[in-house]
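**Sequence with structure:**
===
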Amino acid sequence: MKDGTPDIDPVESQEWQEAIEDVIARDGADRAHYLLDKAVQQARAAGATLPFSATTPYQNTIPADDRLEIPGDSEMEWRI
């Protein structure tokens, strides 16, 4: 595994991966996302410590050319 935790049951891990692939193929990625979110909620409710994810549904709808320039000295602020 990426974080160094050993996979104590590779067969079960493969079954979970195949199940998610099947959901995506049958019902789409949105359904798989829903199921994974529910699984994460249940794991956290049961006391599992999971990595924080800062992913949000936010999408900037302002084109780069229309963004206002922020006042101040950005180089100086970056150094601070």
